[in-house]
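Researcher: I'd like a candidate sequence for this fold, 155 residues long. If you have to choose between options at a position, lean toward the conservative one.
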């Protein structure tokens, strides 16, 4: 198994998600807008987004485990997973992360934090997806290129 330095072990998507969730919570507590954006419908929708995100993550991890490949972004994959949820999205875990963040924004009535969503997507793209896809392209060649042509990055 590949050894990773501590900086790579802590530079993982769940840490980034936690950071953006914390920023969202801080906005909801210290900069509430009081526009009545929230309410029961927002809490319900937020719960649906969070549940959907968690289900996507679970489906992806399950599929990766079946293929006996790593879920750690900085390690090289031993298999190209194209089945299950990966037939619909090349990055279902990251999509799940974004849905969880959106869900918390809705649940916490943190309308200003909606600006964090494209920033969070940018972080995921630059720090993880671009590097992962470059390693997959190098490791799996034309098979990965064909997969990219038939399955979208997000959904």
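Model: Candidate sequence:
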């Amino acid at each position: 198994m590949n050894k990773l330095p501590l900086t790579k072990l802590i530079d993982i998507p769940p840490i980034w998600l936690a950071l953006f969730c914390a920023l969202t919570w801080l906005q909801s507590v210290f900069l509430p807008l009081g526009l009545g954006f929230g309410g029961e419908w927002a809490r319900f929708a937020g719960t649906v987004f969070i549940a959907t995100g968690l289900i996507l993550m679970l489906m992806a991890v399950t599929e990766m485990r079946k293929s006996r490949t790593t879920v750690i972004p900085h390690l090289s994959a031993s298999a190209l997973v194209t089945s299950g949820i990966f037939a619909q999205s090349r990055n279902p875990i990251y999509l799940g992360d974004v849905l969880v963040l959106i869900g918390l924004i809705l649940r916490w009535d943190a309308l200003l934090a909606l600006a964090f969503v494209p920033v969070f997507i940018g972080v995921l793209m630059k720090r993880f997806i671009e590097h992962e896809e470059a390693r997959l392209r190098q490791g799996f060649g034309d098979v990965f290129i064909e997969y990219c042509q038939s399955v979208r990055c997000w959904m």
